[in-house]
Amino acid sequence: MENVEGDYLDGLTLDSVRSALAPETDFYLDDNGNIVFFIEPGLLAGEIAGVLLYPFSPYELRGSAPEAGLRAYGRAGMYR
Known about the structure:
Layout: H1 14-20, E1 27-29, E2 35-39, E3 52-56, H2 58-68, E4 72-74, E5 77-79
Antiparallel strand pairs: 1-2, 2-3, 4-5
């Protein structure tokens, strides 16, 4: 992929996004309790962009789980 100086690399596809993100491990909780997924520099955007951050509130993720066919777990067990 080219365009290492720009925001996102040329030729970005859904498959390249899927291969760059490991949602099971590439996340942390911020100070507000939001879940922040991250993608390391150079995988989807040029090194100059740094780490790409995608924050979501637990409510947003819980609301999207049924549509995506995902299971969201919480302190009390599994949400459906």
